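Usage

Read records sequentially. Each one opens with the input sequence:
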Amino acid sequence: MIDKKHIGKQLPGFKAVAEAGQLRFFAKAIGETDPVYFDDSAARDAGHPGLPLPPTFFFSLEFTQSSAGWRGELGIEPSRILHGEQQFTYHRMAYAGDTLQYESRIADIYDKKNGALDFVVRETRVSNQKGEHVADLRSILVQRNG
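and closes with the structure output:
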């Protein structure tokens, strides 16, 4: 079982740049068809200063940039984990070229099925290069035990 002493643990933060090419690739991968996610002119015509981040792109950046070291500290075994849940709360738009700061903490740890499953809840605050609060992410990682 994952020790509940880790509840409240602050995880290493990181910065990531939202690159236009990544945004276009991600938008295509999720089946987005709105031209504001592909074409700079269409984005400006819609009132955006540049290409906006497609929905859920924050998770993609977090997944590729965050250190997995914290999982080892908690005793999480990569071969036993599942992605259980993901939530997004958006506070303002983010755009291509923005440098996004991710600050995460372990919000909760609990088990189900008499300890057969451990759940780790991670909450992340995302801010832009101006320090403006852009989004909150909440993810739940599930570890199968035994």
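Summary fields computed downstream for this record:
- The CA atoms of residues 24 and 38 lie 5 Å apart.
- The domain at 4-19+53-144 is CATH 3.10.129.10 (Thiol Ester Dehydrase; Chain A).
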